[in-house]
Specification:
This protein has about 550 residues and is an alpha+beta fold. The chain has a domain at about 325-340 and about 355-435. Helices cover about 45% and strands about 15% of the residues. It has 16 helices and 12 strands. The chain has helices at about 10-15, 25-40, 45-50, 60-70, 75-90, 190-220, 235-265, 285-295, 365-370, 390, 425-430, 435-445, 460-480, 485-495, 505-525, 530-545; strands at about 95-105, 115-120, 130-145, 150-160, 305, 325-330, 335, 360, 375, 380-385, 395-405, 415. Strands 1, 2, 3, 4, 5, 6, 7, 8, 9, 10, 11 and 12 form a 12-stranded mixed β-sheet that branches. It is globular.
């Protein structure tokens, strides 16, 4: 068993939050391995992590390996627990949350490595962008810590993604029920159910509007023209009840599709699905499913998702009310104006309302005639309320164009957001908080060995990277509670005077502080002489400074 003295009480209190996610023996292994991953400065393989625990001669090495490959635990449960810790520690009550979204490719080679495919790698040159590896979709909460000017992205939910290689099914949508688009059968599952849900909402609105118009006409008739004791609207009420049932069924189907996506991305120890399984979710619907789970977890807050241009889908039509989506718009997207309001004095007519107004064109065409206003950072910005009918249908969206003054390009950045109520400057600043997730990937590779594990089984592949990213968030949360950023920055500038402009503690400073706390606690439990303890502490601190 792992002695309690090897983990500092400050770290043990944070680890105790994950107790309901494990059995008692598995939790002991979890606490030891995550502490070893943080403290070890050598190779962060599974055996290297066990070496960092100080129990390499006490535990058999297969105990560490079976924790990832055979033990029953779900990284999504750990991610939700970590998300609650981050919200309670790093945010104020009723503060809106920003969720950065991106994917990263962990380079792996070997034919026996599960989920290894030849995929696109954004870090490679454009002439040869493909490489062998395992892709992970990561959602991270962007938080602003005291003493730091820039945000930090703390990973919460992570899912392993495999490319879909099955052929598209042929044929049209199902004959029974609403058919919102002739290509529904060629869409992903959540996109198809989102379009069906969108059509069900429209049909429900039409039925309710028709009933209201009939009741208004009956109320406007003179008293002698109305038959007493008769209901002139039984057919309209029956139609409205039918549309309500149809809407409830469509909502349940969409919720089941999202749950199915999460179930497919859930790590298991059983056999992996075959290469031609048609149920493989896309990157976007996996990201939407994880964001929706977090939106349901924090139902009392508004969750703003920021992503790159790859993460958009018709499934965004059915987002929860407390979830918004902001992404970079493709250059060839064609937008339309908002539908015109009904003319004054014209009676309201039943039927499907218009999805959009006149064609606006691509972002470059819109920027050519848009009115830009200067903002604080010296750039210019324009915002237009519009619709993207081909992808998002009638969903209200806002186009934000940003450019440098006197630039030869029509625009430098085009954002499309489902958030139509927040100030435009706030949406742009929120999107800037997406970049720290790239810094998180780099720091995790440098300090937590994100690409150094060499396991091959399915469950181990799907759990190791979420475990390592969880350690990243744990280090930052611990430092938020027990770290001293000003003292660490001053000490670093004293030892390394070339850091003249350093004002914010980096992740290397945070993990160094936690390593010092762990090693100091281990030494203090075994050494009683304070002079020897102080000498060993100074030597160990210097070694951790060099390792960081």
């Amino acid at each position: 068993m792992l002695p309690n003295a090897t983990i500092p009480p400050t770290l043990q209190r944070l680890l105790n939050h994950f107790w309901p996610c494990f059995t008692r023996p598995t939790f002991t292994t979890f606490a030891a391995l995550i502490t070893g991953l943080i403290t070890h400065t050598g190779p962060r393989t599974i055996c290297g992590t066990l070496t960092g625990t100080g129990l390499a001669r006490t535990w058999p090495h297969h105990r560490a390996h079976t924790f990832f490959s055979h033990r029953i635990w779900d990284p999504h449960h750990l991610g939700q627990t970590m998300a609650q810790m981050i919200v309670d520690t790093c945010t104020t009550p009723d503060q809106d949350l920003t969720l950065a979204l991106d994917d990263t490719l962990i380079k792996r080679s070997g034919s026996h490595v599960h989920h290894r495919y030849r995929q696109h790698d954004g870090a490679r040159p454009k002439s040869d962008p493909l490489t062998w590896g395992v892709c992970y979709i990561v959602t991270a909460l962007a938080v602003h810590l005291p003493g730091r000017a820039k945000a930090l992205a703390l990973p919460v939910l992570t899912a392993c993604w495999r490319p879909h290689r099955a052929q598209r099914p042929t044929g049209k949508a199902r004959p029974n029920g609403p058919r919102p688009h002739p290509d529904t059968a060629h869409l992903s599952s959540t996109a198809a159910t989102a379009r069906i849900l969108d059509t069900a909402r429209t049909r429900h609105t039409q039925a309710r509007q028709g009933l209201r118009l009939r009741l208004d006409k009956e109320a406007a008739l003179p008293a002698g023209h109305r038959l007493p004791g008769t209901d002139p609207t039984p057919a309209l009420k029956a139609r409205l009840a039918e549309r309500e049932q149809e809407l409830a069924t469509a909502q349940a189907d969409h919720d089941q599709a999202l749950a199915r996506v999460l179930e497919l991305s859930k790590p298991t120890t059983g056999p992996a699905p075959g290469p031609d399984t048609p149920d493989r979710p896309t990157k976007t619907e996996t990201a939407i499913a994880m964001a929706t789970r977090l939106a349901h977890q924090f139902s009392d807050r508004t969750l703003h998702v920021v992503a790159d241009s790859a993460y958009h889908s018709p499934a965004l039509r059915a987002l929860p009310t407390n979830l918004t989506w902001t992404f970079r718009l493709a250059t060839n997207a064609v937008l339309a104006d908002v539908p015109p309001p009904p003319s004054v004095g014209t009676p309201t007519r039943p039927g499907r309302p218009r999805y959009s107004g006149a064609r606006l064109g691509t972002p470059a065409q819109i920027a050519a005639t848009a009115t830009f206003t200067p903002i604080d950072n010296g750039q210019e910005m324009a915002a237009i309320d519009c619709r993207w009918v081909r992808s998002l249908g009638p969903t209200p969206v806002r186009l934000i164009l940003v450019r440098v003054p006197h630039s030869q390009d029509p625009y430098d950045l085009a954002l499309l957001s489902t958030d139509t109520t927040s100030p435009v400057e706030e949406i742009v600043k929120r999107y800037a908080d997406r970049w720290p997730i790239e810094v998180c990937f780099q720091d995790s590779r440098a300090h937590l060995g994100l690409e150094q594990a060499r396991n091959r089984t399915r469950a181990a592949i799907e759990r190791t990277v979420p475990f390592q990213l969880l350690a990243y968030s744990l280090v930052v949360v611990w430092y938020r509670l027990h770290g001293d950023g000003a003292a660490d920055v001053a000490a670093r500038r004293h030892r390394q005077p070339w850091y003249r402009s350093k004002t914010d503690p980096a992740f290397s400073d945070m993990i160094t502080a936690l390593r010092r706390a762990v090693i100091e606690h281990r030494i203090s439990c075994r050494v009683s002489d304070q002079g020897v303890l102080r000498l060993i502490r100074d030597i160990v601190w210097d070694r951790f400074d060099m390792a960081a």
